[in-house]
Design brief:
104 residues; alpha+beta; 3-stranded antiparallel beta sheet; two-stranded antiparallel ribbon; 27% helix; elongated
Length: 104
Amino acid sequence: MNTHSLPAKMAEAPYNPNAKGQWLSTARSIAKALAAQLSLPAGSFNIRTNKGGIAVPGEVILHGENLYLCVGKVVRDGTWAGGPAPGRGGRTTPAGSTAGCRPG
């Protein structure tokens, strides 16, 4: 899987529904591939997509018992698109790390 184009796809996603769909599909594929590489048993994790509003690219979340990975966008001022950046007031996940994406 070519992940080199991932930042470009994410940058095009706001205000462009087709690009947002491509970005979220690519990010979801990466999350699925990561779950397979980590040998996560079926049923022990889920992958969620949050399309977000028109001005943000959205986010994809891979969530397991001891894993919470959010693929989203950090904007220039250090905040996540839609919330505080990790270490800057982001919520603490069940695994104990901070994340700008909101568990749920």
